[in-house]
Specification:
About 20% of the residues lie in helices and about 35% in strands.
Length: about 575
């Protein structure tokens, strides 16, 4: 014969053994939310007026529509992903109420008689108290979500731990339910009214736990992502950015390009490519979408950007990558590039001697110290062979190390190792490969003699078989290797670099002066018109009437020299007006 008081007494003892009566953990008081850092905002208010802090492009100058990837050390630049941190924190749960409930339950059981109906009422009161605790916990979670949304702060890590504890309690409740079913022989008709109510409350308790678990209290910290918009129903935020840019290009000499200053396209004594021209264009305008989300692993980021510099002003993909914590996959700036060391330029082409490639890649950039940044990547080889078709079998391997001082200046060193393989144009049955390598040394440092915003920038690159990473050579589709008369592939030695100085005159009026060079050590078997060297000098004056507008003009001079020492020079003037959004 089934006896209700004995079953309840046994069940209560089981609950004590499993630690269920202790009750659910409760959320501690919400921690103080630190105010957003103003240092980065002050820096942006001054330096965002300079397009040098934004992205340059393959064959393009630096622009300011770039993504600003997350970095706890310093503001990064377009598409230059760095170590990221979600910053989600929640105070640990308090267990004092659970311990009190456990002590009370122990006292009740110790004093209870097996058949005392008063004890059933006490047990029911305890269950009601436990239900009230869960209801209070649910309200706390809901309240925290509201406060967190208002403060734009994410606290996911310990909320996940809290949910894990609730999951454990759910498992315990299921065990209790199974025990009740076993004691009652799965026959509800044999259960007393008190037992039926007890079982119903257990089921309600289970539903409450499920609802609390499903309640989301995580939102992305939009204070660290200015200009972003929270996405309803998710923990993510998205930002729409870009700029509209109008350029007037006035050529004074014959040059192979009319919408930019490509030094390598300047005709020499032996070659003529037409007349000097003027052109107006808006093809450099850009549009990008930047999404960030908080996860248990870290911050997730997805970024995509394009411009209208394709053939016939068609839309062209510039960046498309995803990033989770310190791992990135997609197309963005090569690890060999130092975007922050790029001078502010009006010309869309940018410096002839600058490393300037965007590549599809897999990148890993662990944080190894406060001021040190190590990055390793495998990247699309995409080599350029002067008189052959590239067929490389292995990705380029790149390792870089960056050192920052006082968050004001930095030095970066990068090494690329690669295989260059191709088929000969003369006989496509001939295939050969060679080893290529390149070393880059770059940096940026303040020069405070006249104005604390003045800065000096530099980059020096040298190696063999890495010429396609250099802006001018890549634009012309050459520079990595060349087949000799026997069908043997030879890597081309290349040196390239620049020095630049930016001077701030008054308010937001500034100028940048740059000298840049590319030199290729040609072989005797190459034709006389082979690329030997180029030089480029430029100076500009740029003014920002507001933080979202840049207006400027630039004067450029360049010279190309061929292997046989034939030379050609050209002058160009550019006027630009850019409006960011």
């Amino acid at each position: 014969m089934y006896r209700s008081p004995r079953a309840l007494d046994t069940l209560l003892r089981l609950m004590l053994l499993l630690g269920v009566v202790a009750g659910p953990p409760s959320l501690a008081q919400e921690p103080d939310i630190p105010p957003p850092s103003v240092e980065a905002a002050d820096t942006a208010a001054t330096e965002s007026k300079s397009a040098a802090e934004a992205a340059a492009t393959e064959g393009e100058s630096v622009e300011t529509s770039a993504p600003d990837p997350i970095d706890s050390q310093a503001a990064a630049t377009e598409g230059e992903p760095v170590a990221i941190s979600d910053g989600n924190q929640v105070a640990p749960a308090s267990k004092s109420s659970g311990k009190a409930a456990a002590a009370a339950a122990t006292a009740v059981v110790a004093a209870a008689a097996p058949h005392d109906s008063d004890q059933i009422a006490q047990i029911m009161d305890m269950l009601r108290a436990q239900q009230a605790q869960l209801d209070e916990q649910k309200q706390l979670i809901t309240g925290l979500r509201s406060r967190y949304d208002q403060a734009k702060v994410a606290y996911s890590a310990d909320i996940a731990e809290q949910k894990g504890m609730i999951d454990e309690q759910r498992k315990t409740m299921r065990t209790m339910q199974a025990k009740i079913d076993e004691l009652s022989a799965f026959d509800p008709a044999q259960m007393t009214q008190e037992e039926t109510e007890f079982r119903s409350r257990l089921e309600t308790l289970e539903d409450s736990i499920q609802e609390s678990t499903n309640a989301s209290s995580t939102t992305f910290d939009t204070e660290s992502f200015p200009g972003s918009i929270p996405i309803a129903g998710t923990a993510a935020a998205i930002k729409i950015g870009g700029f509209v840019k109008a350029n007037y290009i006035q050529g004074f000499d014959t040059i192979g390009s009319t919408d930019r200053f490509i030094v390598g396209s300047i005709p020499t004594d032996q070659v003529s490519s037409g007349d000097a021209r003027a052109e107006l264009t808006v093809s450099q305008s850009r549009l990008n979408f930047d999404l960030r989300d908080s996860t248990d692993i870290g911050v997730l980021r997805a970024f995509i950007e394009g411009d209208f510099a394709g053939a016939g002003d068609t839309f062209r993909l510039r960046h498309a990558f995803g990033q989770l914590k310190d791992v990135l996959a997609g197309k963005t700036w090569s690890n060999f590039v130092d975007v922050e060391a790029s001078p502010e330029d009006v010309d869309f082409e940018g410096l002839n001697g600058r490393v300037n490639r965007r590549k599809t890649q897999f990148r890993w950039f662990p944080r190894i110290g406060q001021d040190w940044n190590l990055t390793a990547s495998l990247e699309d080889p995409d080599p350029n062979i002067n008189n052959g078709e590239a067929v490389s079998l292995f990705p380029d391997m790149i390792v870089s190390m960056r050192r920052d001082w006082f968050q004001r200046f930095h030095v970066k060193t990068a090494l690329v190792l690669r295989q260059v393989e191709g088929r000969w144009d003369v006989d496509d049955s001939v295939k050969d490969d060679t080893f290529g390598w390149g070393l880059s040394f770059s940096g940026k440092t303040p020069v405070k003699k006249w104005d604390p915003r003045d800065n000096f920038l530099f980059q020096f690159n040298f190696g063999r078989g890495f010429g396609s990473y250099v802006n001018d050579l890549d634009t012309l589709g050459e520079g990595d290797a060349v087949f000799d008369d026997t069908g043997s592939l030879k890597a081309l030695p290349v040196f390239a670099g620049y020095i630049a100085f930016q001077k701030w005159w008054k308010g937001t009026l500034r100028s940048t002066f740059v000298g840049s060079i590319v030199s290729v050590d040609t072989y005797d078997f190459q034709p006389d018109e082979a690329y030997d060297s180029t030089q480029r000098f430029s100076g500009n004056l740029i003014w920002s009437p507001t933080s979202r507008v840049d207006v400027g003009g630039e004067v450029l001079w360049g010279r190309r020299q061929d292997k046989d020492e034939a030379k050609g020079t050209a002058w160009q003037f550019q006027l630009s007006s850019k409006y960011r959004f």
